[in-house]
Amino acid sequence: MNEQNNEVGQIIGGSVGSNILLRIKNDSDVDVGDILICEKNETKYYLKVVDIEIASQLGSQFLEEIAGTNLEHNEELFFFDEKERFYKICRAKILKIRSDNFYPPRNLPEHFDKARKVVKDDFDFLENKKGVSIGYLRLGRKELREVEIKLPSEKLVSHHMLVVAATGKGKSNFTKVFVKGLLEIPEVACIIIDPHGEYYGNKGIVGLSSFPERNNLLFFTPRFSDHPESEPLKIYSQDIEPNDFFGIIELSDAQREALQLSYKVFKEEWLSKIIKENVQKLIDSFEKKVVPGTILALKRRLANSLELDGDEGLVFSLKKREGTSIFEKIINAVMKGKTIIIDTNLVGDEAEKIISSSISTRIFNYYRKKKQANTEKFANIPELLIVFEEAPRVLGVDALAKGTNIFERITREGRKFKVGLCAITQMPSLLPKEILSQMNTKVILGLPAPADREAVINSSTQNINDESIEIQMLDKGEALITSPFIEFPLPVRIHYFNDLIKSARKERKTNVFGFG
Predict the structure, then answer these.
(1) 212 and 258, same structural domain?
(2) In this structure, are 362 and 451 located in the same domain?
(3) In the listed set 263, 283, 313, which residue is the last one of a domain according to the structure?
(4) 288, 313, 338 - which closes a domain
(5) Which is it for the CA torsion 160, 162, 106, 47, positive or negative?
(6) What are the helix (H) ranges across 340-448?
(7) In this structure, is residue 475 part of a structural domain?
(8) Cβ–Cβ < 8 Å for 469, 444
(9) CB 3.0-4.6 Å disulfide test: which of 127, 265, 339, 368 passes with 190?
């Protein structure tokens, strides 16, 4: 493209610590979120438009008088040198400066240096990037389809991800797109806790099972009879430990001590004994260290949380397991780089949290012991990403007031053991600052609430202090992505998941019927 025809403005002021000011060429189509280039002496300044205002050489009193005359008398207006007198000023931040390499903005372009819109060649540094394709470079309202954005999954997975957006802005669509890409990368495994039954696919719902890579999926569901290729989501009491409840459901100190004592006395029968055994027998077994009221409260609490009807519930069972435990099956699948989807759509909030906690605990402990046993072999096992929605339920301030849990521990220690979290929420302001700061990659898909924007902006690894207006105005499928593994925060138009499925089906037909 002719760079002169692509010019949109000139530098008229600014500072390193604030914004660059540009006068915009009349009729130039510039939006908040656009990326501009100011180029001089083989150095490129990458500028991000963060605000636009209208300006005039005329005084405000004169402008008010002209507007009043026009409104009251409907007189047609004529101005000499109209384009020179009335114009737009945009404020832009310097994202990075590029010569041989990228470096932070420590100097400025000069007065009257020209700025132009970006072209494909300005993003040649992205061309050979490996990773998961998530969309195209977004420039304001438009997109540059010649520039595909990929996230370096193997680098960022264990450093945790946060996906934030208001309802309907595309959180689930992004997650499906990203996980679809992980299906093609054997070096990365994924566990998805699915509370809405939307990731695998079902009648009327298009999911990951629609892709050719479905062989890399393992689906656990209580409705296994409806899905012949699935595994039963069934957890037996002998495989559950007291720690699976701590920090997940509300327990008094006496109740916590009773759980631990039961585990010490009855071993793997501890849970079925508490729920089924006679109160007096339990008191005797505990050597009168636990009072009857605590035992009775625990019986009700545990049975309700596990949603048991007698010995059996939809997911949990007090019966003796036959065959391989669900935890072993999940660990084996993770070691093969598979994506595991856990369908919790039919269970209540507490049962879902216990399911996700017990699975996450087993897999995290497995990774931790693997590293301790042999660091060389550990280096060859897949990175793991655990995806869960409504993150404040287990990582929020109120949730952590019940005590630390496995998710909080993974945010602190996970990267040492190749285990990362992908936390999805529409209310990041409910998460503690310490948790938010651990989520190094943030996918921001539109946040109208000021408190939520502030929480994300203040905890990002890259400076996005000036992007609050853009974040507020992001439309469905539009994202701003910040990560230490990309050169600067990237505006992206996320792929539409259903379009990826259509492309995959079309490609499959071409492979079947094509010649050569």
Answers:
(1) no
(2) yes
(3) 313
(4) 313
(5) positive
(6) 349-373, 375-378, 392-395, 397-400, 406-413, 433-438
(7) yes
(8) no
(9) 339
pTM of the prediction?
A: 0.90
Pair 336, 446 in one domain: yes
| CATH number assigned to the domain comprising residue 193 | 3.40.50.300
Expressed as residue numbers, the domain containing 486 is 158-233+323-512
Whether residue 173 lies inside any domain: the answer is: yes
**CB-based contact 164:151 (threshold 8 Å):** no
Could you tell me how many helices (H) and strands (E) the chain has, helices first? 18, 23
**Residue indicated by tokens 């507490």:** 350
Distance of CA 1 to the CA centre of its chain: 36
Residue in 359, 384, 356 with CA at minimum distance from that of residue 370: 384
Question: How many domains is the chain partitioned into structurally?
Answer: 3
Q: Could you tell me if 35 and 173 lie in one domain? A: no
End-to-end CA gap in the chain: 35
Q: Are residues 346 and 480 in the same domain?
A: yes
Same domain, 169 and 247: no
Structure tokens at 119: 């072209």
Asked whether residue 146 is assigned to any structural domain, the reply reads: no
Q: Are β-strands 231-232 and 217-221 bridged in parallel, bridged antiparallel, or unpaired?
A: parallel
CB atoms within 10 A of CB 40: 11
Provide the residue-wise pLDDT of the chain in tens; the chain has 516 residues: 455 568 999 999 999 888 999 999 988 889 999 999 999 888 999 999 999 999 988 888 888 888 888 888 877 777 777 788 889 999 999 999 999 899 999 899 999 999 999 999 999 998 878 899 999 999 988 999 999 999 998 888 999 999 999 999 999 999 999 999 999 898 999 999 999 989 998 877 889 998 877 788 999 999 888 888 899 999 999 999 999 999 888 899 999 999 999 999 999 999 999 999 999 999 999 999 999 999 999 999 999 999 999 999 999 999 999 999 999 999 999 999 999 999 999 999 999 999 999 999 999 999 999 999 999 999 999 999 999 999 999 999 888 888 889 999 999 999 999 999 999 999 999 999 999 999 999 999 989 999 999 999 999 999 999 999 999 999 999 999 999 999 999 999 999 999 998 887 776 555 444 433
Please give the single-letter amino acid code of residue 410.
I
- Nearest 5 degrees, angle CA 160-CA 166-CA 167? 110
472: tokens are 């507020």
**CA atoms within a 13 Å half-sphere pointing along the CA-CB vector of 300:** 6
Kind and range of the H or E run holding 509: helix 497-513
Q: Report the largest interatomic distance among the alpha carbons of the chain, rounded to a whole angstrom.
A: 99
Q: Examine the domain organization and report whether 200 and 329 are in the same domain.
A: yes
Tokens matching residue 322 = 């036959």
Round the CA-based radius of gyration of the chain to a whole number and report it: 28
| 78 and 186 co-located in one domain | no
2 in a domain, yes or no?
Answer: no
